[in-house]
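Standup notes
- DV: blocked on the single-chain target, sequence here:
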Amino acid sequence: MNIAVVGTGYVGLVSGACFAQMGIDVTCVDTDKGKIERLQRGEIPIYEPGLEPLVKKNSAAGRLHFTTDLVSVLDDVDVVFSAVGTPPDEDGSADLRYVLEVAHTVGRNMNKYIVFVTKSTVPVGTAEKVKAVIQEELDRRCLDVCFDVASNPEFLKEGAAVDDFMHPDRVVVGVESERAREIMARLYKPFMLVSDRLIFTDIPSAEMIKYAANSMLATRISFMNDIANLCELVGADVNQVRKGIGSDTRIGNKFLYAGCGYGGSCFPKDVKALIRTAEQKGYDMQVLKAVERVNDRQKGILFDKLEKHYGGELKGRTVALWGLAFKPETDDMREAPSLVLTGRLLEAGCKVKVYDPVAMEECRRRLGARVTYCRDIYDAAKDADAVMMVTEWKEFRVPDWPTVKSLMRTPLVLDGRNIYDTNELRKNGFVYYKIG
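- DV (later): unblocked, structure below
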């Protein structure tokens, strides 16, 4: 089977490489000529563990190809995956211009049956728009060619995307015809040899599943952050509360960790898009609006704690940020709490020193010379009035606290991910604040 994957971001490149690993002939397409040239040279434009060897192996084997020309491969493929970006529009809704551009290109140039699959996260009703665009282009060409549209939302976690794709806990596919169902079942069969986790639905349900899943996870995070803030006020320990409620099998322990807010490419965008979809239908998503408000507030909680500690006297102080990416094992800083913290610290007149194992270049792209870039956590801590632990990278888990203290001007640690032990920090002479 031959397929094309349009878009070489996290979703498209991971999907293409993993399909190729299963013996499928894959052509990845992108309009960014520079990115395609880098990929053809074996250079990976994103940081994702395990992806580089997979791309190099399957490119060398002749199963994975890269091009800027989708038209050139349409006569040879059975399936076209649209994995292009769907950034939030000004009103919070998903911007579908790139998805529809791909649909227009396919409709203008296809000459045989193709399954057009939306892999991008798109609102309910997008498949109908895609279908109408392709049919409109075929009618303009006076061409009677059958095609199908399907929805196949991704559930990849940045930092574990390759493993998630190769060993999925479920694959959701929304289809309208038996022909499309058979093709998609054949495509995913190599991933289902151990246990069948392939779920077929109607297309609107498949489109809704992705948004509902991400919104539920975001809700759990904001709920626990709200509980953590209340724990501080009543003298409870949120870590003990988390263990207590997480042991309830009806609740479970996933996504119950308090912290300084969620970010990334999915949760913020998808929550906004689902709220907007509801508004377009005349419905008010009150719970999700609250989830968004809690998260926006939580991203500034470390700054609030710092400001309270110093009685509002922050001008001229030096603050070190340990971690910049929105989560470990990625260089993605989209909607990252570190950006909110940095902005507020700079506005307050602080000098900001930063270190992240992989996101330094991305930070330079976003913040330029506004912050000081450091070699490691110890370089960042030197002469600092406070250290803020923002991203829970493994290499941050067991610092040499006596060394950190000797480097700092003031031994103050604000832990945005609750990874340190209160007694250990205090025993080493630190003032220590955590979440909840």
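- Follow-up: The chain has 17 helices and 14 strands.
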